[in-house]
Amino acid sequence: MKLNPFNPNNVSVRSGGGGGGFPGGGAGGIGCGTLVIAAIAYFIFGADPMQTIGVVESVQNSGAQQGATSDNPQEVCNQGPYALEACNALSSLNETWQPEFQQAGIGFKQPTLFLYDRGVRTACGSGSSAMGPFYCPGDETIYIDTSFYDTLEQRLGAGGDFARYYVMAHEYGHHIQKLTGLADQIRSAQSQDQRRANQLQVRMELQADCYAGVWAGKNRNLIEPGDFEEGMTAAAAIGDDKLTGGRVSSENFTHGTSAQRSAWLRRGLETGDSDQCDTFADLRR
């Protein structure tokens, strides 16, 4: 996918972290032991790491990042090819979604992209590269250790630039859910009915997949041969049934099956219409 170079005035980026594995003492008392569980949950069960460590958006005084940080777009985005790709994608996502919000009369705020190395502190607690990319609603930031993309290709067999853009666009989809208020509604519903918590989480993830497809669909002129296949391969590679190898029942899935993730990504890509991403429609009948 041939994205235009990022606009330094249209991206909010930071970088930092590192320092030898897990950072000590996360927000809200979240510590190293919980992080290990979250990391295992990601790779073995495909679980949402932020859900695993118990995200609470009202966590206070936890915004400090580990190590030296930079918020200079040119410096952050030119750290390497993956960083540049991520910044190009962020710029494109901002340019694509902001007009959609303006047309709908909903306030829009760009997310921040934080590129870190090994460990980082967030408003949602301590994060680790083992958790994979994630979005923290507490500070409206997408966190990525770009070494994950090597894991995506080498361990999960999902390589290619479009596969990496899909991951970025999926996390951006969670930012959209935050801005529309859906994320808060679902978290409230989950706390009120624990039996439906996983089911609701799956629908959140599938909607984020669809939103990722919508972004690509609205930039169809930039799609190259093979991009669609890369996206479908990536979506299938990170389905709950694929990651768990049948070791976890469907009732405990958190992201959806390979077939579900591929189907919702496809729907968004083919329609380019965010109205087609209502993964909760049948629950309102």
From TrEMBL:
**Domain of life, per the record?**
Bacteria
> Membrane-spanning regions, if any?
20-45
- GO biological-process terms attached to the record: proteolysis
- Which residues constitute the signal peptide according to the record? none
Output this protein's name. Zinc metalloprotease
Which species is the source of this protein? Qipengyuania oceanensis
What does UniProt give as GO cellular component? membrane
| Compartments, record wording | Membrane
